Amino acid sequence: MQILLIPLGLIFIIFFMIVYMASRYKRCPSDKILVVFGKVGTGRSARCIHGGGTMVWPIVQDYAFLSLTPMTIGIPLKNALSMQNIRIDVPSSFTVGVSTDPAIMTNAAERLLHLGFKEIEQMAGEIIFGQLRLTVASLTIEQINQDRESFLESIRKNVEPELNKIGLYLINVNITDISDESNYITSIGKKAAAEAINRAKVDVAEQEKSGAIGEAEANREKEIRVAENLAQAEKGKKKAMADQRIFVHAQEAEAVAGENKAKATIAGTNAELAIKEAEAMQRGEVAKRQAEVEIQKAQYLAEQERLNAVEVVKQEIEKRKVEIDAEAEAERSRRTAKGHADAILARYEAEARGLRQLLESKAAGYQALIDSCGGDARAAGMLLLIEKLEQIVAKQVEAISNLKIDKITVWDSNGGAGTGSSTSNFVSSLIKSLPPLQEIAAMAGVELPGYLGSMTKEQPAAKTESPA
């Protein structure tokens, strides 16, 4: 029993594997492209299959389908400029579809897979719109309107390579109508119709002329034959012969008159034909001149619009340049002023820091001096004054030593009688004007030592009695 269970389990596993592998074999319908992506080979992003089938390995591969159903896209192209700068409307419809060419199929797999019909139509419509406008700009109105085959071939030549880049190809192009605002195409049609009518009139006149000439020749031939028959019938009779001659001459004269009349008729017909041809040529020339005037007007307006656009762009560029220069100048001025302000602020801050450090150092020195005097500020002040006495004396000596006595002239109105010379009095007064050290020390509350001398009080002058 156990031996039988092993083959049954193996058969079940094999059957399951066959069913699973069959489920991984994907067939491609005729109206679709099977795109296998994932691990499909070195340097390849996808593998495209049209028709048949292939194995899609689990985990490392997956698949999707691209529809080959054609799409019809309407392109309402309006106001497109031709080579003659005439704006025309070229409404058209394009039928496109996904290509089955191997290289183009790969482009479709890379760019259109998982996109809907609307998204593909919008993408293709934008490409066709731009290339159709480019094609119209490379042709004249006559080439577009009269040679439709060449126009369609130019469209196909410009549009199809761009569609191939996204995986599409052009199936059909249908130009519904071509029109322009200046009625240039209508004028061309009217001109062609007028030329055809004129050619028909000329042909009719030629046929009428040939008919009139043939009729005159037939009448003449008939009359001549009749005259010959009558002459032969009256040949035996002289009178008949004479009458026949007279009759023949008369008939000849009548034939000549008929011929002249036919020629006159032909000349009149030719004259009327020449008049009609001249009138038709005049109308055609007037229409041609009017069309040329309209074309020149359109070209003038187009050139004027272009020049206006160029001038506007130029003015806008100049305006923007002035604004940029002004903004740059303002920014430079702001930065320069900020730099000066920062420099001045930095200098003042440095001076303030230096002055503060100097004052703090002096305060610390003074505090140390007071502390060294046991907290006696008066004693500390005396020490500072004593320290500065040497500098004060040096300044006094320097002031007197630099004095040029020989350059001083003293004017004394009192004559100097009994009081010494004016110069000596000036020098004595000058020296007395300098404050003595004892007074400076006394003002500071400091008593100098005795070896520096002392000041004596001035005695009042003794009164002298005049003799009686």
Describe this structure in words.
With 468 residues, the chain is an alpha+beta fold. The protein is 65% helix and 12% strand. The chain has ten helices and nine strands. The strands form three sheets. Strands 6, 7, 8 and 9 form a four-stranded antiparallel sheet that branches. The chain has a three-stranded antiparallel sheet with strand order 3-2-5, covered by helices on one side. Helix 3 packs across helix 5 and helix 6 packs antiparallel against helix 7. It is elongated and about 205 Å long. The C terminus is likely disordered.
Entry summary:
The chain is an alpha+beta fold and 468 residues long. The protein has helices at residues 2-24, 102-111, 117-137, 141-146, 148-164, 184-233, 238-372, 377-401, 422-432, 437-443, and strands at 25-27, 32-38, 46-49, 53-55, 61-67, 71-81, 87-98, 168-175, 179-180.
Key terms:
4-stranded antiparallel β-sheet; about 475 residues; alpha+beta; elongated; disordered C terminus
Structural topology:
Layout: H1 2-24, E1 25-27, E2 32-38, E3 46-49, E4 53-55, E5 61-67, E6 71-81, E7 87-98, H2 102-111, H3 117-137, H4 141-146, H5 148-164, E8 168-175, E9 179-180, H6 184-233, H7 238-372, H8 377-401, H9 422-432, H10 437-443
Antiparallel strand pairs: 1-4, 2-3, 2-5, 6-7, 7-8, 7-9
Helix pairs in contact: 3-5, 6-7
Low-confidence stretches: 461-468
- Helical residue percent band: 55-70%
Q: Which percent range describes the beta-strand content?
A: 5-15%
Largest β sheet strand count, sense and barrel closure: 4 strands, antiparallel
Kindly provide the radius of gyration, computed on alpha-carbon positions and rounded to a whole number of angstroms: 65 Å
Helix-strand makeup class = alpha+beta
Terminal residue distance: 188 Å
Counting H and I runs of at least 4 residues, what is the number of helices? 10
Shape: elongated
Total strands: 9
The overall pLDDT average reads 76
| Helix-strand string | HEEEEEEEHHHHEEHHHHH
